[in-house]
Design a protein that fits this description.
Length: about 575
């Protein structure tokens, strides 16, 4: 009978509106719950098939909850670095256990990112769920297999008590004075005195500048002087000097003309002393051997006091009595920088520079002070020549590779340190952004050294890509975890669990772990919390509607009851 059907329809209305009120109640009570997604009631009719076209059988209504999980809540700033939100789609992965196994612990997904470290250092949210992430190795890489939940680990910051980082790079910004005089005298050879064996002069050299004509040599007799270094890079240069009684632009007839020709050669200088008994002294670069050889005849035997051959350099980085590292020779410019060993200890690396007689070139030594900290002789790590262009910019192409390659530091066994290499950075080719050679005072403008002393953990930061980074008091930063973003084809199909978390269902589809900002996933918003999506004004409005609908349904029941009462009275 339709009256009974109407009563049952009213009952279904009461039940449906009661369910709607329950959803509204949950929404209102969770208005301040971080990451909460509102649930709304969806109503659908219950239809009973009519027996004929002239009769109607009421069915009623039913309600079903719809969780609007895919809605983005308002992002609100927080003072805590471990308060996290997701700007965009996706969920954080959490577990109910601190150390889940393949058989224990349920993985869940949440937008509730109010994480704090517990007594064990694990990051947990307000529901006690443990945040999961990929472990970042020492090279900054995350696991290659990122699709399985077993690749995740609880994010823990307890073991980060402190760290130290060894230096690997030293960059210098300095100017070396272009007009710096060569302070170390190079290898020398001296002519026989005029009037001595094999050489006579047609005129007394009373002017003291080596005038007069040399006799005792034959025309076109010649000798060579080779200067420079075999490298790399090679800087060897050989010049031929030829005698002729009648001087030309390239031949000499007396000592002053020979001296003038010698002074034109880069890396060679000469001087004349004496008057009637004049003497010519030839000086080479202090860091290069000066090799003298005759070309034809016996000019060297006739002209020079010492036997022909190699005249040893006076500067030699490999010889303690001839280098800067041993403090035997005083550098023209010397500066020290502080580097850090594998234990975070501060060490002194000194760079010594000495001007060469060759244009635009400087001898360079890198050494540790005190030298006893290493097994290297004099603490010398590397040496070579640094070159500059004519405009004062650095010329790395013609700079010794021993200076530009990685330098090994052989720490003494008593130091108990790990092996260490350091690369020296002198700037960019043809630029003055590192070392330069201008005619201003030699000075260190600045230096940059990586590495750090031992430092305690200062704080934790999370970036937008999901990297959890530890910051230490010494300025060192270390990436320790990366947070995955779990994606679903239908987030609204997830099943809610206690603690504002969800698990996957057939309706939601399976999860897909993505890196933040990849594959449609959102980015992590650090020091931010996602507010509840509940609109309190809307909920109070819905509450009034549900109340009125409930009252109306109750009227259906009371009215149907009155009608039945009238029907029963007919029998009376």
């Amino acid at each position: 009978m339709s009256v009974f059907g109407a009563m049952f329809s009213g009952v279904s209305g009461l039940a449906a509106q009661s369910q709607a009120m329950a959803m509204i109640a949950d929404n209102i009570t969770n208005v301040n719950t971080v990451g909460y997604k509102e649930t709304t009631a969806r109503f659908s009719t219950l239809v009973t098939s009519a027996a004929s076209a002239t009769s109607y059988a009421p069915g009623g209504v039913q309600s079903s909850p719809l969780a609007l999980i895919d809605r983005q809540g308002l992002l609100q700033a927080s003072a805590s670095p471990t308060d996290l939100a997701i700007s965009g789609d996706g969920f954080f992965v959490v577990n109910e256990l601190a150390n889940p196994t393949s058989t224990q612990g349920t993985y869940m997904f949440t937008r509730a990112g109010a994480f704090t470290a517990d007594q064990n250092g694990d990051l947990r949210n307000a529901a006690g769920h443990y945040l999961q992430g990929w472990v970042v190795d020492s090279s900054g890489n995350i696991p290659s297999n990122r699709s399985a939940l077993t690749s995740l680990a609880p994010v823990n910051i307890l073991g980060l008590s402190g760290t130290a980082t060894a230096s690997t790079s030293v960059a210098m910004q300095a100017n070396l004075q272009a007009s710096q005089t060569v302070s170390v005298t190079g290898p020398q050879n001296v002519t026989n005195q005029l009037g001595g064996s094999g050489i006579t002069s047609t005129a007394a050299l009373s002017d003291g500048v080596g005038g007069g004509t040399i006799t005792g040599l034959l025309d076109d007799e010649s000798f060579t002087i080779t200067t420079g270094s075999a490298g790399p890079p090679s800087t060897l240069s050989t010049t031929t000097f030829t005698y002729n009684a009648t001087a030309t632009a390239t031949k000499f007839s007396n000592l002053s003309e020979l001296s003038a020709l010698i002074n034109k050669v880069d890396g060679l200088t000469s001087s004349i002393a004496g008057s009637s008994d004049a003497r010519l002294t030839i000086t080479g670069d202090p860091g290069s051997d000066m090799v003298m050889a005759e070309v034809g005849g016996t000019p060297i035997a006739d002209l020079f006091a010492t036997a022909p051959g190699t005249i040893a350099k006076t500067y030699d980085a490999a010889t303690s009595t001839k280098n800067m590292a041993s403090n035997t020779l005083t550098p023209d410019f010397e500066r020290s920088v502080q580097i850090f060993d594998s234990k975070g200890g501060a060490r002194q690396l000194t760079m010594g520079f000495m001007k060469q007689a060759f244009s635009n070139k400087w001898h360079v030594e890198a050494y540790i002070e005190p030298a006893g900290d290493t097994t290297a002789t004099d603490g010398l790590l590397a040496s070579g020549t640094i070159s500059f262009n004519t405009d004062g910019t650095v010329d790395l192409v013609n700079t010794s590779t021993a200076l530009t390659a990685a330098i090994s530091i052989p720490w003494a066994a008593t130091q108990g340190l790990a092996a260490q290499t350091v690369t020296l950075n002198f700037g960019t080719q043809n630029k003055a952004d590192g070392l330069s050679q201008f005619d201003g005072p030699s000075q260190l403008k600045g230096s940059s050294v990586d590495g750090a002393l031992f430092g305690e953990l200062s704080t934790i930061q999370v970036d937008t890509l999901g990297f959890v980074t530890a910051l230490f008091e010494n300025g060192v930063t270390q990436k320790i975890y990366k947070l995955p973003i779990a994606m679903f084809k239908n987030p609204n199909g997830l099943s809610a669990k206690t603690g504002n978390a969800y698990i996957s269902t057939d309706a939601s589809g399976s999860f897909n772990l993505q890196e933040a900002g990849v594959g449609g996933s959102g980015q992590v918003a650090p020091s931010t919390l996602e507010a509840s999506t509940v609109d309190i004004a809307k909920e109070f409005t819905n509450m009034i509607l549900a109340q009125r609908a409930f009252s109306a349904s109750s009227r259906i029941i009371t009215t149907a009851d009155d009608m039945l009462d009238e029907l029963i009275r007919l029998k009376r």
